[in-house]
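Subject: for your reference before the review

Hello V.,

The reviewers asked for a structural picture of the protein, and I figured it would be easier to keep everything in one thread rather than splitting it across files. Below is the amino acid sequence we used in the manuscript, unchanged from the supplementary table.
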Amino acid sequence: MHARIRPAPPPLARPPTLRPSRHLVVAAVLAVLMVESGCLSVWTIQRPPSPPIDARAPLECTRAVAAPAADTGIALLFGAGAVALLVGGQSNSESVTRSVVTGIGGILVIPAFFSAFSAIWGYASTERCRELEEALDQCLKGDRVACGKLGSGEGPPQGPNPAPAPPSSNP
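And here is what came back from the structure prediction:
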């Protein structure tokens, strides 16, 4: 019996290197962009409290619209980039380039959507906070309707410093 001898594999001049494809690099960059895309309102705004709200306690919620405004800007930037890539990709004659550019444009729609949603939610939350703040102020001045908006079902709070009674019109 003759043993077969296998030839040794040729030595490698250098070890193989992993080269990520362009698609993988683009996907990684877009993933980072989506994570960093904003949604500032969702993460930074303190939501208004749910009724009943104690008129004597300070109201803790966010009134400023800086985060929703930033989300709006981010949504507009990503949205404009998506539209530009989607429209520009269609005008390219090479099918591979057209599909890549159109795909990237489609991916950019995702952070645009989330940032827009965050902006809308942020504007609604800050508006509700300002409404509650106004109702709280009016309730402390004796307005029963405003106290009803706070959900307490009671009149103005009576405590160490009760609200002054409205002037009487009886002679």
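For the response letter, the relevant points are probably these. The chain has a mean pLDDT of 76. Residues 6 and 12 are 18 Å apart (CA to CA).

Happy to draft the paragraph if you're swamped.

O.
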